[in-house]
Predict the structure of Probable nicotinate-nucleotide adenylyltransferase.
Amino acid sequence: MTQAIGLLGGTFDPIHLGHLRMALEAGETLALDEVRLLPCHQPPHRATPDVSSVERTEMLRLALADCPSLVLDDRELHRDGPSYTLDTLKSLRAELGPAVPLIWILGCDAFLGLEQWHGWRELLDWGHLLVIARPGWELPSRGPLAEWLSEHQVAPEALTASPAGAIGVQALRLLPISATEIRSLIQAGHSPQFLLPDAVWQYIRDNNLYRACA
Ligand code: ATP
């Protein structure tokens, strides 16, 4: 049987339990063989984080140590320039072959900004999209993105039946945690414990991260 692979890209600045539960639940809901987490080297649509991509990747490595169905994929660190998702999907497709379903997972908030992504309409030539409903965010109801969604939307469980070309929308119980909130807590001298894996919090303390970030 052809494997189906989920892909969750992000700055992971830092990785937290919201990301991890979402990746795990998406993988289990669609019976994916694995979900890869891909740290972004140089985000095209936001300021480059103060914490380096190497450190953000190290935190991911620590977070994923006990979960074999979630896998680190650090390919974006090996490309210079902005980390375009389109290039990442092309590189995965070249490596994994034409038949494997590739499912790029993104929160509703990220989907709403999709028109700013480099070559966004082309993404479906290389993989599927799985949009996860996130508290406080609604899917677009008008405009090019809304039209594109209604043209390509299928039931999420249909995504694993083909390699690319469709969009699924999946409601999951999501934890209301954001990396922004974690950075603010640390900067204010508060503890983010229980919002992220203990090993990641330890790494942040050992390396004195986020104390000086805005
Ligand atoms: P920031 O607060 O710095 O913007 P973030 O917590 O939203 O960060 P990102 O690394 O930007 O995290 O997000 C990576 C992906 O994870 C995006 O698709 C985003 O929608 C999703 N995501 C972020 N937080 C959660 C959460 N609590 N539950 C589910 N998905 C999330």
